[in-house]
Amino acid sequence: MSLLSVHYSDYLAIWQSQDTITLWILIAILFVGFILFVLIKIYYLHIKQQYENKLANYNLQRTHELQLQRATIESIENERKRLGADLHDALLSQLTILRLKLQLGAPSSTLDPILEHCIQDGRRISHDLFPPMLENKSIEDLIMDILSPWKKIFHVPIITDIRQVKHFSNEVKLHLIRAVQEICTNISKHANANTIEVHIRLSARYNVLYIADNGIGFTTSDKPGIGMQNIHNRISLIHGKYKVQQRPGTRFIIVF
Fold it and tell me: Buried (b) or exposed (e) across 3-13, using 16+ Cβ within 10 A?
C-alpha cells in the first residue's frame, strides 16, 4: 500500500506541476485553433462557392438578356423590311396603277376595285402593326381575328375551351398574337400544309394555346432561325413556356 501511495503521489505531483499544466493549455489552445481554422476554411470555401454560383448565374442571365436584345433588334428590323415590302408591293403599286388610270381618263367602274383593294391592304397593314381593339377584346377573340386572313389559304378549325374568363395585359395579348402570326408565317413558308388546327384553353390552373399543321414539318437545329427566335422571345417576355413536337406535321404547345 505504501508503494502505491508513493506512486500515486508522484503522478499527482507531475500532473499538478506548472510545466504539465502549461503543456496541456498549449495543447488545448492548438486544438481549438485547429478547429477554428478548419471551420473558417469551410466557411470561406462555402462563401466562395456561393459567390462563384451567383457570378455564373449573373453571367448566364446577362448573356440571355443580350441575346434577347439582339433578337429583338433583328425582329424589329425584319418587321420594318416586311412593312416596307408590303407598302411597296401591295399598296404603292395599286396606287400607281390608280394614278395612271386617272391620267388616262378611265371610267370610275374600273377604279373602284383598285380603291377597294388599296383600302383592304391599308387595313391589313394597320392591323399587323397594332391590332384594333386590343384593350377591349379577349385573348381568344384577338387570336381568332389574327387567324381570319389565313382562312383564305388554309382550313383553320378553331376550338375554344374557356373554363375561366381571364383578363390579360395588352403586353401579353400583343406578344401572344405576334407569336401566332410568326407560327402561321412559318407554316405558310415551310410546312407545305393545308390545315392549321388551333385550340385555346383558359382555366384556373393554366392557359394553353395549341397550334398544329398537317404539313411535312421541319428539321430542328442547334441554331434556330429568326422566326423561331422571335417566337421564343415573345413567349419568354410573357414568362411562358412552349414545346415543339413533330408528329407528322408540327405542333406548337404554348403555356402562358
Answer: eeeeeeeeeee
pTM: 0.56
Distance CA 233, CA 222 (A): 16
Q: Which residues contact 234 (CB under 8 A, 6 or more apart)?
A: 175, 176, 178, 179, 182
Query: Can you say whether residue 249 is alpha, beta or left, with left for phi > 0 and alpha for psi between -120 and 50 degrees?
Result: left
**Phi and psi dihedrals of 198, rounded to 5?**
-130, 130
Indicate the helix (H) or strand (E) that contains 200.
Answer: strand 196-202
Question: Are 134 and 145 in contact, with CB atoms under 8 Å apart?
Answer: no
Length of the chain: 256
Residue 20 has pLDDT above 80, yes or no: no
Q: CA-CA-CA-CA torsion for 217, 219, 224, 227, nearest 10 degrees? A: -20
Q: How far is CA 151 from CA 32, 160, 180, 191, in A?
A: 80, 17, 14, 16
Cα distance between residue 234 and residue 176, in whole Å:
7
How far apart, in whole angstroms, are the C-alpha atoms of residue 241 and residue 235? Answer: 6
C-alpha span between 161 and 138 (Å, rounded): 13
Question: For residue 122, is pLDDT > 60?
Answer: yes
What are residue 158's DSSP bridge partners? 198
Cα angle 150-151-153, degrees, rounded to a multiple of 5: 70
In our burial notation (b when 16+ CB lie closer than 10 A, e otherwise), range 128-152 reads beebeeeeeebbbebbbebbeebee
Which of 40, 60, 41 minimizes the C-alpha distance to 52? 60
Decide: 231 and 183 in contact? Cβ < 8 Å.
yes
